[in-house]
Amino acid sequence: MEKDLKLEMRDIYKDFAGNPVLKGVTFQLRRGEVHSLMGANGAGKSTLVKILNGIHNADAGTIYIDGQNANIKRSEDAEKYGISFVHQELNICPDLSVAENIFIGRLEKNRFGLYDMTKTKKKAQELLDMIQINLDVTEKVGRLRGAEKQIIEILKALTMNASVLVLDEPTSSLNEKEKKTFFEIVDRLKKQGVSTIFISHFLKDVLTISDRVTVIKDGVNNGVFYAKDIDKDTLITAMMGSATIKRQDRKKIQNENQIAMELIDFSSSNKFGNINLKVSKGSILGVCGLLGAGKTEIARAIFGLDPIDSGRVLINGEKIDKVTPDNMLINGVTMVSEDRKVEGFIPLLSIRENSTLSIFNKMCKQAGIFDYAKQISYSEELAKKMTVKCSSIEQPVGSLSGGNQQKVVISRCVAAEPSVFILDEPTRGVDVHAKAEIYQILTNMANNGVAIIVFSSELEELLEVCDDIVILKKGRITEMVRATDTDKNTLLSKIS
User: Fold this and answer.
1) How far apart are the C-alpha atoms of 424 and 342, rounded to whole Å?
2) Spatial contact of 266 and 275, defined as CB atoms under 8 Å apart
3) How many CB atoms within 10 Å of residue 211?
């Protein structure tokens, strides 16, 4: 064992119900190193991390901390060894405040041993000021957006004075400016001797922050690289076995004057105001802005998940009298929401059941009898089309990796054959190859006349897939640009 190793997971095996997920994986982390862990959805990354955290126990293999055998059977064991986690799936208490969530389990106390709310709020504010995030420390976390909850998880991990920090998709909800600040924090911790395991599908982030990168493919090691010596294509090939697919060129929009959806003076108090926009049949419209600009709030309001104060929604020129999810579905509008875990799927139901939730009526024969064989055939075709990695379509969606869960959510919406498709952060937690496949699906849908609106914090994604991009600032539209006439830096300057 190397002398400067802080952590080693050696020859780790894990099997779930006869499905081998890890087949002898070894991972080594040096002191004061940022070491990224990469792989396609379902490759085994999250399982390896959960073993380190004691959520799962390995079937075979050994964990060493500072050269000594570490017995990690529970999450409390990992914390005793100085290992702190930020998981891809958030672990927050919605009824507690921002400050209380950050310091949960370590709340500041007064001289009588009682909870000191003032001191806890002050310390939380210091952390928020350090990473330059504007959040009210007294706000209940249940009222916050997904991106804001992710920031709280990051801050929570930073309060534990850990010697090993494990970050599972920590930048998925951060914009470019926030990422830069976050990287500065990680670099500061690195200089203090903290070792960091960084798990991400964002290739640029991995190459920016990492010293080394370990790639897992199909449950086995498929290379350890020094980040300074490789590029994106090297990582993609190691992860997927080949370079990522290229999206086909978009057809010229033939229906620019055929408006599929229009928002007129769309407003919601303290969230957004006077939103006026049109999306044509066969076009892909992007919407971007910094955290708090109103992206998710607008997306949810369009679909009727959140109320509005004033404004109108027109579908194919017809006003929707009551904007509710039921009415929007009836009028051919579907939506992929930002929080897949809460709103996207039913975890205990299978892939077959989740992917056909929106089209149960189409699965019936003429006599009204449910056609089980048709459902199986259709869901198998959908799973194959969306490249969902699973043991079978009977596997519960809750047991899939985060990226594969997202594919099932998107497949359910695609199955409904919408005329307007709204997507809020559609590729969060999805690997680079699957992103390209999702972009191709959206392109094909648009080429077939579907109007698509993509709300995203990933500027490269918007430039890749969209025709036009709307710029949001503080709940107002400030500009619309043609994707082919701009670039990432220009977009970033416009939203900042």
Assistant:
1) 14
2) yes
3) 18
Could you tell me if 477 and 277 are in contact, meaning their C-beta atoms sit under 8 angstroms apart? yes
- Domains of the chain, residue spans: 5-240, 259-332+418-495
CB 155 within 8 A of CB 99: no
Point out which residues pair with 63 in neighbouring strands.
9
Whole-number percent of the chain with pLDDT over 70: 95
96 exposure class (CB count in 10 Å sphere: 0-12, 13-18, 19+):
middle
Hey, do 5-240 and 259-332+418-495 end up sharing a CATH topology, with the first three levels equal? yes
Average pLDDT, the chain: 87
CA–CA gap between residue 220 and residue 216 (Å, rounded): 5
The pLDDT score that the predictor gives to residue 246 is 55
User: Would you say residue 254 has pLDDT above 60?
Assistant: no
CB 412 within 8 A of CB 355: yes
Q: What is the pLDDT of residue 73?
A: 93
Task: Record the tokens describing residue 141, joined without a space.
Answer: 């976390």
Helix (H) or strand (E) holding 372: helix 372-385
Q: Determine which helix (DSSP H) or strand (DSSP E) holds 359, and give its type and residue range.
A: none
State residue 347 phi and psi, 5-degree precision.
Answer: -60, -35
Which band of pLDDT confidence, cut at 50, 70 and 90, is reported for residue 243? low
Q: 5-240 domain in CATH 3.40.50.2000?
A: no
Give the span between the Cα atoms of 182 and 169, in whole angstroms.
Answer: 12
Is pLDDT at 407 greater than 90 in this prediction?
A: no
Cβ–Cβ under 8 Å, residues 395 and 332? no
The whole-angstrom separation of Cα 262 and Cα 204 is 36
User: Which pLDDT does position 186 carry in this prediction?
Assistant: 85
- What does the pLDDT read at residue 247? 53
The per-residue pLDDT for 88 is: 66
Q: List Cβ neighbours of 139 (8 Å cut-off, separation of 6 or more).
A: 97, 98
Phi, psi of 224 (to 5 degrees): -125, 125
- Edge-to-edge, what's the strand order for the sheet holding 68-69? 19-30, 5-16, 60-65, 68-69
Answer yes or no: are the C-beta atoms of 156 and 129 closer than 8 Å: no
The 10s digit of each residue's pLDDT in 259-292 is 999 999 999 988 999 999 999 999 999 999 877 7
CA distance 43 to 478: 42
For domain 259-332+418-495, give the CATH number: 3.40.50.300
Q: What residue ranges in 339-467 does DSSP mark as E strands?
A: 420-424, 451-455
Q: List the one residue out of 229, 217, 175, 178 whose CA is nearest residue 471.
A: 175
Task: Please give the backbone phi and psi of residue 318, each rounded to the nearest 5 degrees, phi first.
Answer: -100, 130
Token pair 């009588």 is found at 112
